[in-house]
Amino acid sequence: MIITHLRAENVLKYARLQLDDLPRLGLIGISGSNESGKSTIGETICYALFGRTFSLDEDHLTKIIRWGENACQVTLGFVVGDGTEYEVTRHIDKNLTQGARLVKTSDPDNILARGNDTVTAMIQQLIGLGYPEYVESFYLAQREISAPHPHSDAVKSIAGVLPLEQLRDEFQNEIERHKGIMVEADDNHIRLQGEIEALGVVPGQLEEMQKRRGALLESTTRCQQQAIDLGQKSAAYLVELEKYKQAIGAKFRSRLLQMAFLLPGAVAALLWFALAYLGSNEMVTGVAEQLKQSVQLGSGHYQYLVFAAAGLGLIAFILWIREMTAKYRIAHFSVVTSGYLEGLEKVQQHRASGYDLALLDIPASAIDVAIDDAEAQNLRHKMARQQAKIDNIREASELEVTWLNEVSKAESELAAEMVEQINKEEQRTKIVDGLRFEQGGHEQALEHSNHQLKVLKTAISLLDGATENLATAFNREVRERTAQLLPMLTQGRYEHIKLDDNLNVEVLSTEKGDFMVFDEVSSGTQRQILLSVRLVISQALARDCVKGDQFLFLDEPFAFFDAERTQAGLNGLTGFRQLPQIFVIAQEFAEHPQQFAMCIEIDRTATELIA
Predict the structure, then answer these.
(1) How far is Cα 26 from Cα 579, in angstroms, rounded to an integer?
(2) How sure is the predictor about 150, in pLDDT bands with cuts at 50, 70 and 90?
(3) Residue 238 CA from chain centroid, whole number
(4) pTM here?
(5) Three-state SS letters, 397-457
(6) Rounded to whole angstroms, how far apart are CA atoms 595 and 569?
């Protein structure tokens, strides 16, 4: 990214800061005496991009507000690798109330992101790096180069090895943590298994109890229904039996009476026919006369014989209907008998099966009802032939009903007793299920930790290989890229540096013709070497991560350099690919201002800077 403009109000020293039309190519020199506000420019750029500065974290950001003011605001314009120009604005007040927004310069009304975190995340996505990478590469703060000796971790950080080493340490700590988890999970698993065994829950016992209770309730309902059905069928049978016996007598009497009325009626009808229609026939005239004398009826009274025949025939017909009704009752009784016998046989077969007694787990003698199966079978045969006595039938039915009621009562009582047993077993089973669930969690923890151990060990192995390869590649790249830069910064005294396996720095001295340990050179030379390393890494980072042109901000990189070394350093800063825009801060520059694309001189007493 390249910076195009920077504007701020009430930030640190400045009541107003305005840098417009910043050159996109070349050195931008910023000079001024101590405490003139040179570093404020770098701090302001850093705050605009990431919502914090090198010296102020998120918890102390209110210190960025100028003394005596209540709020400040910063606006920064920048161009990313694809050539799109953006503008970010941030503000903060004394109450730590913050705001931020990001827009395209070409379309300022279309806000791309709003809010500190959202804006910061989107800027990181646009420029390809975050705050840590920025301050370790493209932003060289004044206090960083003021240290008398560079720390080995700093070099490792620049080389990219330190994060790998830190990650390796984190992985190793994770390995120890997972080992502890496995030991604890195994102990808990053993403890829970002991608690499960102590409860003594038999697998499937609860299901068996619930199944038995369900069977008891089902059998109770069935026995009760059979008792009701048998009682009703028995009563109906006894009623029909009485009707059957009455129907037998009625049938016999109706048959006799039919004959008694049907014969006289037939005689009356024949007499009427003979007297009324045979008198004119010469062949039977004598017979007709004899009949008239015998009957002693005048010719006007023959019709009474017709009425008598009709009346007797009607009575005979009524008696026939009665006979047919008796036959129907006799036939219906056969159906009733069949249904009753079928129901009685089912009850007796059910009782004989012993299912209810087995379900109750009691002997037959436990039911205080004595039933002789042979007598019951004999009674059924007699009933089938309509030879059974009513008292025997009634007694047998009552015994069967009583037996069913006693059994259903016993089953109902046992089912009620089992409720409490099932509840207790459910509680114990629930406890065991909870323990097994907890046990399963520990098993999963064991499996997960064991898997994580394998992954972490593999990751450490890969990190070790990556660290070694990265250190080797870094050594080679630094050696190659500093071949031209380092001689410029050291007036040709040192040409190459290298790093051993532990990333310790050694420098090749042309005077001694050998590599020297870093501590053997002067502090000024150390800073020259460290600056060359920083520039090389910044260029590589711009190439690999930013993937485009990138600005570089160097806050007093030549603070301990003499004039000759400073000039050599400035010459070495020009011509970096991927780093066309470089801000350089110094108290003063000896050469003429035309050496820079832009030169900004700051007055120590001024509270506004406009350029």
Answers:
(1) 9
(2) very low
(3) 68
(4) 0.52
(5) HHHHHHHHHHHHHHHHHHHHHHHHHHHHHHHHHHHHHHHHHHHHHHHHHHHHHHHHHHHHH
(6) 13
